[in-house]
Amino acid sequence: MGTFKAIRIDKAEKGTTAALTQFDEAELMEGDVTVAVEWSTLNYKDGLAVTGKAPVVRRFPMIAGIDFAGTVEQSSHPEWKAGDKVVCNGWGMGETHLGAYAEKARVRGDWLVRLPDGISTREAMAIGTAGYTAMLSVLALEKHGLTPSSGAVVVTGAAGGVGSVATAVLSKLGYHVIASTGRMSEADYLKGLGAAEVIDRAELAGPAKSLAKERWAGGVDSVGSTTLANLLSMTKYGGAVAACGLAAGMDLPSSVAPFILRGVCLLGIDSVMCPLPQRKLAWNRLASDLDKGKLAEITHEIGLDQVIGAGAQILAGQVRGRIVVKIV
């Protein structure tokens, strides 16, 4: 047993503290697989955890970070052996189970997904929970029956992590993507990802009408609150919106009108406890339906020592696309 680098969060008199420090391997939690972590990523939830802006962390001390990719070091799980390349998202990592911003992680083997052929550990974290959540949203829309011939799809928070991947995937699949953003300066970036139109998020602000003019057949929303309410009021008859985030708040000031007068469906997307078969499907679809060139364009890299500062930036809406965190 030794020590390794990790971002440790501790309870303080007021709130929490976060610091890059040495963590004792003997303090790792129970699990049947130990992974040498190579890459992690920065998600909105990670920003909340490392800054202490919301009570994401529910166990102390905690190692922050909700997802990782790396190589199995030790395993007593029948599915895994040393040398396997794996990815892990959610399951309470960084919240109730020691997380990913560390050189080692010990988890249950049932939480792991084998890295699909053609995706490196770095690319897996360029996708990360944000991209995996975007793919779960696309799968839900497809299950609802949405196809490119159904009409346009809208993506909110389009310049963020979920939005960037959703825009890239949906455009590659042939959809007419309308990207909504609060940063119209990112219009060229979004069109480069495949957006056919870019609209200002102001068009989805303010109190939502019970029913507004029909504008799209479906949507992927990572914003919530009034934005989602407006999205629903503008969805075409029989359409659907996949809701996967709350950047603007947890409230939903809507009415039942879109549901009972237009047959609109609101599809809830949870990435944390998502069953393994759906996880595997999402990762395999990402391997085939996400343009690697576009993924590279939306990604930039930081070190573990830069995570806490970047966490504040992502909460302030100052992060474009995806951030990968180099662990070793």
UniProtKB/TrEMBL annotation:
Q: Which residues form the Enoyl reductase (ER) domain?
A: 15-325
A Gene Ontology molecular function term for this protein is: acryloyl-CoA reductase (NADPH) activity
Listed InterPro entries: Acrylyl-CoA_reductase_AcuI (IPR014188), ADH-like_C (IPR013149), ADH-like_N (IPR013154), ER (IPR020843), GroES-like_sf (IPR011032), NAD(P)-bd_dom_sf (IPR036291), Zn-ADH-like_protein (IPR051397)
Reading the lineage from the top rank, the first entry is: Bacteria
Q: Which PANTHER family match?
A: ACRYLYL-COA REDUCTASE ACUI-RELATED, SHORT-CHAIN DEHYDROGENASE/REDUCTASE
What is this protein called in UniProt? NADPH:quinone dehydrogenase
* Species: Bradyrhizobium valentinum
